[in-house]
Fold each of these.
Amino acid sequence: MICYIIKLIYGGIFCKKGVYDMKSLVSASLLGCDLADIRSEIKNIEKAGADWLHCDVMDGCFVNNISFGTPVLKCVRKASDLPMDTHLMINDPIRYIDDYAGLGSDYITFHLEAAPDPQAVIDRIHSHGKFAGISIKPATPVSEVEPYLATADMVLVMTVVPGFGGQKFIPATLEKISEIRYMLDSMGRDKVFIEVDGGINAETVKFCREAGADVMVSGSYLFGAEDKSAAVKSLKV
Ligand SMILES: O=C(CO)[C@@H](O)[C@H](O)COP(=O)(O)O
């Protein structure tokens, strides 16, 4: 808890305080990299200017895919000092919060649809001094996330159906971003991040930014780019 309060006070890259007027942050999704060469992929994307490392944990139940879990994230933590943005696509996420906090995640995001008691998950993340993100799938109404906007540090709006990289951006999700930004502003919670994830590239990023998003997750676009610095720059709109 003390660590959490210190981060809130001092802000910096972890917290929106002081960076509200900055360009959007880029969180590089490691699902899109060559996992057999993850250390050099991380170094390259770090050098290219990515702000965070986005780590997609999938359990094969909440989503139809299995990606990686704690052993891989421990190695990621050792390979980089960038903030670790852990995205849990798993059922009943509270079971694993201690593990993902313990290995050094900075943000831990879970799915509203997967958590029987979302507030308990947020509280558990905060008890470790970590930032709590709550995510919704494209089909989930914004009204369902509203009760948690008072305590979450980030809202992740999925712009594709979660489970796989390389999908096409769903334009209907833009309205959700605007609605959430409006709700947060009305509550005076303008320092809460809105993150978007899925099909983010140099084109779709502009729409997301206009709608009010400030953290852009990108996998296939970033890791597939010849010039990674230019690709990162194109997302910092
Ligand atoms: O969470 C997910 C997919 O469920 C993402 O983080 C993807 O990894 C994004 O990949 P691209 O759409 O950018 O290729």
Amino acid sequence: MNIVPSKLPTGHPKVTFGKVGVLLVNLGTPDGTDYWSMRRYLAEFLSDKRVIEWSRLFWYPILYGIVLNKRPQKVGKAYEEIWNKDLDESYLRTYTRSQGEKMAERLADLPNVVVDWGMRYGKPSIAERMDALKAQGCDRILLFPLYPQYAAATTATVNDKAFEYLMKQRWQPALRTVPTYHDDPAYIVALANSVRQTLSTLEWEPQLLITSFHGIPQSYFKAGDPYHCFCYKTARLLREELGYTEKQLRLTFQSRFGPEEWLQPYTDKTMETLAAEGIKRVAIMNPGFVSDCLETLEEIAGEAGEIFMHHGGENFVHIPCLNDSVDGINVLETVVRRELQGWV
Ligand SMILES: C=CC1=C(C)c2cc3[nH]c(cc4nc(cc5[nH]c(cc1n2)c(C)c5CCC(=O)O)C(CCC(=O)O)=C4C)c(C)c3C=C
Ligand SMILES: [Fe+2]
Ligand SMILES: [Fe+2]
């Protein structure tokens, strides 16, 4: 409920309150595939201390001297291959917007709840959308980093950014952050349904299902990041839900960046050796990604498939992420309604 401005004493600043905001936040994405858009995006992303933990004194000369000169062109070409040409944006932004819109429809029975969406890097920024929620009278905000498996490089940096915004506010909204939901039954069932759905369209049967998660450096894992265990738990629960044996489902880690050792087994290396093991029909999915994006469409559906076929594979299918499917929104709605308890 908002105080009607006409009832306020003369000279009293306008006050709005009484609503609850739900802010969905994904990683982010460049505004375009050109050099400068890519460079701006990568500079913001790769100067985040939660993403690259090396000392700034060591990392910045490499970032500004080498990475930001070469990588924008290379990665821009990869983005071009998976760009949503209809809306002139990446699919990550298309799906995140659609998730926000569909979530708002699902929560229509809660008239005091306002749903919005934003990105950790690039636009729309977390600060911009938190400002917009406040302006609409949200004095409580549920912040939902869209990562089923908590990691410092993803969930924590979204939370950091929201708290950084709060540091500058005179009237801070109360903030709740959504915890890891890697073992939520709604999430596991939705993943299993997506596997069954894709496999039902095939004329062949996979010998192996690979669950490929984004990796993190080994050093982050050794420093206590729980991400590794959360990925393994998701994969185990999915295997049990599907009724597969341990041989029928394998977990791998993708998207290595830089010279460090990352979590293993690596997805690309695994794809090279499967056929030699006698595994020639493979399905692969990315349970850690709420939306399809560069890392799933280009690196897995594209590159990983090519590696597999080049090394003797015969059949390959990529199972899409949950995206804005009915099941995908069911998962997000289940988590949001649970975390809103006591506020609505
Ligand atoms: C050290 C670098 C990186 C860490 C650690 C990292 C962790 C991490 N990332 C995701 C999800 C996504 N990453 C995406 C792209 C991407 N990731 C890195 C680096 C690290 N990620 C880079 C440099 C990039 C940009 C592309 C590139 O230059 O290779 C994306 C896709 C964004 C898109 O617009 O499509 C996602 C999503 C997770 C879940 C994670 C750790 C758990
Ligand atoms: Fe990443
Ligand atoms: Fe673990």
